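User: Predict structure, ligand LMY7XDAE.
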Amino acid sequence: MTAKIISGKELSTQLRGELADEVRELKVTPSLAVILVGDDPASHSYVRGKEKACKAAGIHSIVKHHPSSLREDELLAEIDAFNEDSSVHGILVQLPLPEHISENAVIERIAVNKDVDGFHPVNVGRLLTGKKAFTPCTPLGIMKMLEISGVEPRGKRAVVVGRSQLVGRPVGQLLLNEDATVTYCHSKTKDLASVTSQADILIAAAGRAGMIGEAHVKEGAAVIDVGVNRVESTGKLTGDVQFEDVKEKAGWITPVPGGVGPMTITMLLHNTVEAARGTMFDDES
Ligand SMILES: Nc1nc2c(c(=O)[nH]1)N[C@@H](CN(C=O)c1ccc(C(=O)N[C@@H](CCC(=O)O)C(=O)O)cc1)CN2
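Assistant: Predicted complex:
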């Protein structure tokens, strides 16, 4: 079997076009504040990508760039100001942050209704309890890719490799919310291949280049590669999945680059439009 390739790049072009149409229909111009601390080249590139995508969709973006010497209290004060500013609908602090700043303190400071990253504990808790919530962008993008490909999670066995707050845990929760039977694997999992090879849906989100080979994959499975690993010698980007081998066995597969990555930014636009609508928590119960 040769897998169908799920292109996040192509899907993003379509979805971003649809989002731009939605933005034109809104009474307000959605506005996103992005805070970037430090000089990590990858973070700079992602923030540039977010700015560009916002502009193309008709979303206003404000980017605040600070040196890595920024103090935590200064960052929290800036978040407070954006929380108070009613013209700003979404707030995002690019991760990772320098070590002297507590990511938890920063995430918890963002107003729940402006938390377009979906990292605030209230949004995490709402997701856990099956309520409407801002949902982290990469997991949301993964679910969209499965949906568009006709891969229905209900009753399927899903295995998530990786347990990060950004991707592994929330994507497992979303799959569970869609009635999949979910197993998490991580660095302490024994005989990884014996678990992953049972998966109808396999999410590789461990951040280890090429760790998922053909032996880890069930024939016909949907394999979603979240890995963004830079090969030092070539500077090229590679995923957690050995694409060329696995694509001969899987039913569906996402490439790196051009797979999950672009969907992360697309779902940020989606969440920002939701924030501008201001209706996320209307069904409060
Ligand atoms: N506050 C946040 N910080 C981080 C998040 C996040 O969702 N919110 N996710 C990642 C980084 N990220 C977005 O911020 C991101 C990662 C990758 C891509 C992407 O499009 N990748 C391309 C390749 C780009 C390249 O060549 O480097 C691809 O996979 O095709 C977009 C956004 C951590 N931080």
